[in-house]
Amino acid sequence: MAETLREDIDIREDNLLELSAEVLDTLLRDHTTGQNIFWATHDYEGLGSEYGYHSPILPHLITGERGNVIMPRVLKSKEQQTDRSKDMAEVFTPSWVCNAQNNLVDEAWFGRPNVFNIEDEATHTWQPTTEKITFPEGKTWKDYVRLTRMEITCGEAPYLVSRYDTTTGEQIPLQNRIGLLDRKMRVVSENTETSGDWLEWAQVAYKNIYGYEWQGDNLLLAREALLYTLLDFYQAKFGKMPLLKSINYIAYIISWNIWQMDGLKGVVPDSCRDGVTEKTMTLFGEEEHIVNCPGCQQENIRKHNGLYCLIRDWGNKDPKTKENNRKIRYIDLIK
Hints:
Blueprint: H1 2-9, H2 13-19, H3 21-27, E1 29-30, E2 35-36, H4 78-88, H5 95-110, E3 117-120, E4 125-128, H6 141-146, E5 149-151, H7 180-191, H8 195-207, E6 209-213, H9 216-238, H10 244-257, E7 258-260, E8 276-282, E9 285-291, H11 294-298, E10 310-313, E11 326-329
Parallel strand pairs: 5-6, 6-7
Antiparallel strand pairs: 1-2, 3-4, 8-9, 10-11
């Protein structure tokens, strides 16, 4: 039963490697550090030194003989789930709760309830609407696709995409999916005819979906789920896979928009130097001194000496460099 469930919901890194080594490399990339995302958990240290907390997640560590190292939380042992809940406050939300909350967001924007589905509160289920989505006066489907949405501390990103229920492992059919990105992709599919138009607006949808996560394994699972959501919707629309160059570009967008971060500090996890002994060379030889992080000491998000995370502001130019899709620090979005 467990193996059947795994085949249904788990995205194998070996399959990604077979699809394209470039795609897997992109999904492992951290654009702030210029390196790979790192484990940021002690769960895998028993597998060897390359699985240490601060070690980068490399393709050979999660493929081949180690192809089952990373798996969704629901497939982990109960002991592992409990430990992660205690250590990292990791608690995943059932899909029916994600759906109810996402519905409230859409109800506010559309000005009416039951746009994408109708909930049954008694059974915690829902039925998708079958008619093409209509839009309020003064708003268009393109406006909806351009809406910026973000899931904080996203885990496996159940609010963004819902290929499976993260708490039960139950696979969710495409027409029943309830994530914020799932809804955008439904709208794109309903309002485009050609593959070119579909992919153009799919890119817009992905550029306006964001999320961050501390633990590297969860982050990779979230990124993979977003990528496979593209493949699921494209295949349902056109009966085939998109070209590899299109898959690569979406993976690139995902690698920027779903990033590794300490959400309380806005920096790469554990990058602050606080109470750390460092050595420097002076005229009198090597001296030791203690480095403290002002942000950690004062609980001020703007004063950390760690590495502040960068994201892309898609579609906007940097006023100084004139570079398209400018890079900005996440904390600079916080007023």
